[in-house]
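Memo to structure team: turn this sequence into structure tokens by end of day. - J.P.
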Amino acid sequence: MYPNLIDIGFLHIRTYGACMATGFLVCWWLFERLCGRKDLSNLLFALLLSGVVGSRIAYVVEHWSSEFAASPLSVVRVDQGGLMFYGGLILALVVYVAWCAAKRENPIALGDHLAAVIPLGHAFGRIGCFFFGCCYGRASDSAFAVRFPRFSPAWCEQVHSGELSRTAAESLPVLPTQLFESAALLALFAVLLAVHRRSRGLPGMTLGAYLAGYGAIRFALEYLRGDPRAAVGPLSIGQAISVGMCALGAAAMSYAISRRGKDGR
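Reply from structure team:
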């Protein structure tokens, strides 16, 4: 856990925020390379803002009683972590569709370019989660398990649940699900780049592959998570949304393949 990248009095840069900013800038550069356009700055800024706002809203709603009820002003401290990716993705999708409608852009064709780069930026974000200590995994004796220091999210939750003494200097060993997800996202990014190159005549294929691919990754990793999350029946809220993503992804890929048949390719 390394929450502060630079802390020299007048200059204080959080590692979490630095990882997010790096991921966004890298994705911006790669997105422009893939689509061959440099006139989409307003769209990218809108997606960045809506992604952060949506992620924060979803996290605050889910953790209001445990983290924010006693300190409402901390809601704006996104630099300290506390973002829920699915909340940001949903709000960014709404903004994206509205922007495409207003600008008369093809949301599927442009969405293929965006979907190809999202996992790379997300991978940077998950590294930031690891340095902050949020989104940790369940307690484990595995050789991969790590201990987070005192006052980290894992330590606080284990003390609150009675699993750990308040005098403990470290948390119980937990799985570094942040790093697991980051590695899986990098693999998905490599797959999507290959799909993007080979499916130029299949609008929606890369977008569908991203939705289905990340939905499957997140569904599986949710079983390893140890941080508290809301439930939807037998599933976590993340798994419930993942099921919807997989269904949308399958529909998008089916649409792409059906268009190929109609176009005679």
